[in-house]
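> example.struct
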């Protein structure tokens, strides 16, 4: 029996909690500015503010808010909003609220807090104080100039250094920096911040990203040393631009910056030299000669004269020269920076040939390795990275094509050394070590996972282990291909932002990661490449493929659409709207009788038997799905998206114009491709029928025939796909929507060729580019996201969490789980702008139980697979009596309910 006093205490504690929670019925947490917490370098002149709301009550929502903004934290604490007081605003908006105070100053730091009023009209407490800080808003803010090396460039990474003097107590200190291709910033011997492979990849002639670092705590009184190491990245000949700004406690300021000629103190002279990074290339890898290290070069005690006695004249410090700027405008980097996000210990190490050691990381991934080694000075360790092994157990690098993907470390000798590269990354599961002194152990190599540091957002787990393993495989593939642009693959000589793949990949990505800052940046990349004629390019930044892009690149508009649906972001849509229209107009200008007349890839990369043998791109063009069919379907899709966006943006004329275009294209599409003899589209294959259904282009009286033909086309292929990168998504979606969810489930869980299960059965840990298990040269990446749309299907249908177009950004949610195939349960979660949404269901003794969590200030429509309203319970009570649950009757074979925030537990027989 429990101790009576303890019991009493427990009761008292519970009572206290109840009193507290009924008192603060709504409270604010997680204040964000421009979708980030306490960001520096904000360049939106009117930033968007968002917050989370919590409450223990059901159906809680915000009825009003008040935002206070101050120039000083203490002022705000005392309630003095000297910058802006929104006053009490009657509104339920808690996501992306526009700052509407006075003009914000360049560099200005603003402190803010917010409170909310709940459904009963009572105000909750203010949030914790948050801040944002503005970027350098005007070109005139920059004193710095781009500097580089003068002499003949040896291809080596350059080391820049300068001493600065800190004269008084520092109140605030910032370094604004960009170094092309990639830079690493150092201060007094330490790396500043945790960005790697910075800045993000852009078309440097249009836009160059710079980062902002708070360096106050790393500065010391007196002499300080700034060091910047700059590699080639996607640029070439290294150059750097840096500006440091210090505000002292007494309000006076110092500024120091990169320059070539003499300028006023505290600017010391800058110096530059070649360093130990002999070679560095994104594709090829890095060669590092530790014997050339200048230990202490980035510290104040460094004596450059001493440094000049180094190995050869190339290592002398010289004065950098001002160099031509890259040409693009300087823009604050607001995308989540690339970071080392995880470390993995290898699973095994083998010795397939004497002295050749091969590590298996156990997971195909993107990043690099840290090597631990000791040995003689000058010993040379070579690391070769690969996704697969040759039959003899050594690495097989043939599918990397011309990418050498090889790092070399040359030892300095004299004890334990540890090294990892800076300016390259690899896509790999295996690492082959040659020249290692002795026999390496598992401890001597650690894999570092490197990617844009977007947060994971959605989770999905089911009773079917194969589904879980496919989800993991897709997740790792997406994660491996986020390197400031959405790359097609991380390993071979490509790594480009392919727009065709992204058309079907983007929805998977927004379910698995928080792309709210990543995609706006990529939209700018696309826009930078867009021509006067409206044509976008196959890849952005444009380095590969064609201009104009394949018309299947509706990804351009879809990114804007998903940013709106998943994050409630209308400003990016507004900013890009002209670009979206221009691309749609361009496609429309490439039509004859409203049929688009060109296409390159179409439903790219179907199973080999369904592709044109040995045509362009190693037989990846579909033989039964005409490219013009796909192109025309996507013109329709784009026109419809533009007209839907026009509604959101209140542009009536555009709405009507693009709706009319969509209708014209729809008619032409049906006239050209409808095949009445068979009751399907074109060749009547899976792709054509699924795409037409997905687009909603099939006239109502023909839908049943088309669906029946689609089902037949699936059965004719033993319930396997015959589709390429694009239509794979649509087959699963439309089968589920038209009542054939179990068939979609069967396709998704096949383990024989072609299927995701087949990839897993053949050892894949990330998605292949082809359905076939190819090795050798050519086109067969083993880490290619374009077939990963199945993960979006898991989230949307098995987990059942969907944004409701009626309330974008998950202000309204649709929860509609499908209990398909042999599934007995599924658990899904999604971190929305309003907080965590969860949906978890279980089939048990003939009943269906569904637990959902709906965040405060949102409304969910819940579909329960049940026929009989009287059998539905919530929280153990008949649903009719449940608090906050409104019945909307039955729809499409489900009982439908509407709920506000809270946790609910439904059960139906
Ligand atoms: C890319 C693919 C892309 C294709 C289009 C390939 O090189 O890796 O992802 O779909 O080109 O041609």
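> example.seq
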């Amino acid at each position: 029996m429990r101790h009576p006093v303890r019991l009493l205490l427990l009761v008292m504690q519970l009572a206290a909690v109840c009193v507290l929670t009924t008192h603060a019925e709504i409270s604010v947490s997680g204040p964000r500015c421009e979708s980030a917490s306490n960001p520096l370098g904000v360049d939106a002149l009117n930033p968007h503010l968002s917050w989370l709301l919590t409450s223990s009550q059901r159906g809680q929502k915000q009825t009003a808010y008040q935002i206070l903004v101050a120039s000083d934290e203490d002022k705000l604490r005392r309630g003095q909003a000297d910058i802006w007081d929104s006053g009490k605003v009657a509104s339920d908006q808690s996501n992306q609220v526009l700052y509407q105070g006075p003009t914000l100053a360049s560099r200005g730091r603003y402190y803010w807090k917010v409170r909310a009023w709940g459904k009963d009209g009572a105000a909750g407490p203010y949030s914790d104080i948050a801040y944002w800080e503005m970027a350098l808003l005007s070109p005139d803010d920059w004193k710095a100039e781009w500097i580089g090396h003068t002499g003949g460039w040896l291809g080596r990474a350059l080391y820049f250094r300068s001493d600065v003097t800190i004269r008084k107590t520092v109140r605030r200190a910032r370094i604004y920096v960009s170094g092309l291709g990639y830079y690493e910033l150092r201060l007094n011997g330490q790396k500043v911040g945790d960005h790697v492979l910075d800045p993000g990849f852009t078309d440097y002639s249009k836009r160059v990203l710079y980062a902002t670092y708070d360096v106050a705590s790393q500065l010391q009184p007196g002499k300080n040393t700034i060091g910047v190491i700059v590699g080639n990245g996607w640029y070439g000949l290294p150059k750097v631009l840096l500006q440091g700004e210090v505000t002292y406690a007494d309000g006076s300021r110092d500024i120091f910056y990169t320059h070539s000629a003499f300028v006023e103190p505290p600017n010391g002279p800058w110096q530059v030299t070649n360093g130990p990074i002999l070679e560095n290339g994104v594709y090829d890898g890095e060669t590092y000669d530790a014997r050339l290290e200048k230990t202490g070069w980035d510290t104040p005690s460094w004596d450059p004269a001493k440094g000049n006695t180094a190995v050869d004249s190339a290592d002398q410090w010289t004065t950098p020269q001002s160099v031509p700027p890259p040409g693009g405008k300087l823009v604050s980097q607001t995308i989540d920076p690339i970071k080392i996000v995880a470390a993995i210990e290898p699973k095994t190490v083998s010795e397939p040939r004497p002295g050749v050691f091969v590590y298996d990381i156990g997971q195909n991934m993107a990043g690099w390795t840290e090597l631990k080694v000791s040995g003689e000075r000058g010993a040379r360790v070579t690391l070769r990275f690969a996704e697969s092994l040759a039959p003899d157990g050594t690495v097989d690098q043939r599918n990397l094509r011309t990418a050498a993907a090889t790092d070399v470390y040359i030892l300095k000798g004299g004890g334990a050394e540890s090294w990892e590269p800076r300016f390259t990354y690899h896509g790999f599961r295996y690492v082959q070590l040659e020249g290692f002194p002795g026999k390496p152990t598992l401890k001597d190599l650690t894999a570092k996972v490197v990617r844009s540091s977007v947060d994971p957002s959605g989770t999905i787990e089911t009773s079917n282990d194969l589904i879980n393993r496919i989800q993991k495989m897709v997740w790792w593939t997406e994660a491996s291909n986020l390197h400031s642009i959405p790359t097609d693959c991380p390993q071979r000589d490509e790594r480009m932002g392919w727009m065709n793949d992204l058309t079907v990949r983007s929805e998977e990505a927004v379910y698995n990661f928080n792309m709210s800052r990543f995609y706006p940046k990529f939209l700018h990349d696309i826009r930078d490449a867009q021509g006067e004629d409206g044509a976008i390019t196959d890849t952005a930044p444009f380095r590969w493929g064609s201009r104009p892009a394949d018309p299947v690149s509706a990804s351009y508009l879809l990114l804007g659409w998903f940013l709106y649906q998943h994050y409630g972001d209308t400003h990016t849509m507004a900013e890009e709207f002209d670009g979206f229209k221009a691309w749609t107009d361009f496609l429309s200008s490439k039509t004859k009788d409203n049929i688009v007349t060109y296409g390159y890839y179409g439903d790219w990369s179907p199973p080999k038997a369904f592709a044109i043998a040995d045509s362009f791109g190693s037989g990846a063009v579909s033989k039964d799905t005409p490219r013009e069919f796909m192109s025309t379907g996507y013109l329709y899709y784009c026109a419809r998206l533009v007209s839907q966006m026009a509604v959101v943006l209140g542009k009536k004329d555009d709405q009507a114009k693009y709706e009319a275009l969509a209708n014209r294209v729809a008619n032409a599409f049906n006239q050209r491709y409808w095949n009445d003899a068979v009751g399907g589209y074109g060749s009547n294959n899976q792709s054509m029928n699924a795409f037409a259904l997905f687009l909603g282009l099939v006239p109502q009286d023909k839908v049943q025939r088309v669906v029946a033909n689609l089902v037949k086309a699936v059965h004719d292929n033993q319930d396997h796909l015959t589709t390429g990168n694009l239509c794979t998504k649509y087959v699963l979606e439309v089968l589920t929507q038209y009542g054939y969810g179990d068939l979609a489930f069967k396709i998704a869980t096949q383990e024989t060729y072609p299927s995701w299960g087949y990839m897993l059965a053949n050892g894949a840990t990330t998605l292949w580019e082809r359905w076939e298990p190819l090795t050798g040269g050519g086109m067969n990446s083993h880490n290619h996201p374009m077939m990963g749309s199945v993960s979006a299907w898991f989230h949307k249908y098995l987990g059942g969490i969907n944004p409701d177009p009626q309330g974008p950004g998950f202000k309204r949610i649709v929860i509609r789980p499908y209990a398909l195939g042999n599934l007995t349960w599924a658990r899904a979660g999604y971190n929305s702008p309003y907080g965590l949404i969860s949906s978890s269901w279980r089939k048990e003794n003939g009943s269906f139980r569904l637990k959902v969590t709906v965040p405060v200030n949102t409304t969910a429509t819940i579909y329960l697979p049940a026929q009989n309203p009287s059998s539905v319970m919530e929280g153990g009570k008949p649903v009719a009596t449940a608090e906050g649950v409104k019945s909307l009757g039955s729809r499409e074979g489900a009982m439908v309910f509407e709920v506000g925030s809270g946790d609910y537990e439904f059960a139906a027989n």
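> remarks
The two ends are 38 Å apart (CA to CA).
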